[in-house]
Amino acid sequence: MTKTYTFLLNGEWRESGSNETISIPCPYTQEEIGKVQAITRDEVDEAIKGAEAAQKAWATLSIRDRASYLYKWIDELLAMKEEIAEVIMKEVGKGYNDAVKEVERTADLVRYAIEEGVHMNGESMLGDSFPGGSKSKMAMISRVPLGVILAISPFNYPVNLAAAKIAPALLAGNAVIFKPATQGAISGVKMIEALHKAGLPSGLLNLVTGRGSVIGDYLVEHKGIDMISFTGGTETGYHIASKAKMVPLVMELGGKDPAIVREDADLSFVANQIISGAYSYSGQRCTAIKRVLVNENVADELVTLLKTEVEKLSVGSPEENKTIVPLIDTKSADFVQGLIDDALTQHATLVTGNKREGNLIYPTLLDNVTTDMRVAWEEPFGPVLPIIRVKSDEEAIEIANKSDFGLQASVFTKDINKAFSIANKIETGSVQINGRTERGPDHFPFIGIKASGMGAQGIRRSIESMTREKVTIVNITE
Ligand code: NAP
Ligand code: G3H
């Protein structure tokens, strides 16, 4: 018998009145690892009502007082590090060492959020800068919380990407309704156990578990929600944006990050960056390198280097810290296999891979991929990397920008002027020059444009997105 986890409602760990639970399977053993509550709409109402009430008092505390709870959360998270990592590993199939790193990275993120938040001092303006204005008018511009933040997180970083929303929200004086991905909900329960142990006042963080397809729309459309911070797939993002009322939205969605490789690049270095960028955690990262646009004059050499490295990748169980692990579920593995099959049917060259055992897809490298193939455009979220050979920088830029997605891109070259020139023309939230695509360090702004999102994350940007400016004007009379 596995454990049935409860959900946190106004300071109490509760079973749902629905009497329904959701079974969470392990992606690599397929055995149930536990059950989470499938909560009801009435419980969602209760959670939002409780959060609204708790937020009022929380916002009146000093930021240092609010920070004191988050410091305790860091301590509790680190004290539970191995326990949480074990759950992440079993629930989302992430290598154990990477799962430990996810918890440590989360502790660092919360700490940095506190340091950033306590140093955000607002600004002041004097009236005399404007024609006809006077020094006797002074505006104090401060940031105030929005109220109740709905934080919806994806499966692949069930702790870190949830905390990236929860910490800035709480620090800024908001309450949070946290809806974890269902496959990731036990990790969510565990990290919130740590927050509960830290003594966070009741109602400030209510954890709502249940399928997005069942309670998602109800949450998103709820009039008690003042802002939505969502990370997940593009289709879900579009759906949420179409349902949300007039509340601010931050959306971090899918990607199809290109690595542009110029003729003059250091190819051994590039191969290493591409391998870790494309294949770590089986490519289940929004920022994974998902296509290579390489100059045809160096393509053969790069493909040879990549083949050697891909064939060295370890494949197997997350418990043994393998790089290539089974994908999150069968539907995802079928989807990746469909992209590979489509490319091969259309005469892409199979360099290595295309082997499957259940949900475990072996690392696959496809050469001579053309823009007619689905794998040139669709996000696999799996370990398959297409190589598209290009004749020029211009062609690489054109194909890079034709994508619906716009998360990140990498440019590899020794010519720094060309690097900047290409970076300026690429339509993504960030461009990495001579480095793999990645989100961290977590205080950098993290931005998806086009189908990759709207708004920005990154610690300071997250605090800003969860607050609004308030202007208080003093009129000094002599
Ligand atoms: P997903 O299927 O879109 O789910 C994301 C979250 O949305 C889950 O919590 C899900 O709950 C919830 N949800 C589903 N339907 C909803 C609805 N109608 N209303 C409200 N919430 C709803 O994504 P995923 O499979 O977990 O994650 C993989 C995707 O996320 C990839 O596309 C990846 O690129 C993207 N991602 C982007 C970033 C970024 O920062 N740009 C980071 C990580 C991942 P359930 O689990 O209960 O369905
Ligand atoms: O999956 C999306 C994450 O934001 C990627 O983060 O680049 O640190 O793996 P990462």
TrEMBL record:
GO MF terms, alphabetically ordered: lactaldehyde dehydrogenase (NAD+) activity
Keyword Membrane included in the entry's annotation: no
Pfam families in the cross-refs: Aldedh
Keywords, comma-separated and alphabetical: NADP, Oxidoreductase
Domain Aldehyde dehydrogenase residue range list: 13-471
Origin superkingdom: Bacteria
Residues forming the catalytic site: 252
PANTHER family documented for this protein: ALDEHYDE DEHYDROGENASE (PTHR42991)
Protein family membership: Belongs to the aldehyde dehydrogenase family.
Name this polypeptide is given: NADP-dependent glyceraldehyde-3-phosphate dehydrogenase
Organism this protein belongs to: Priestia taiwanensis
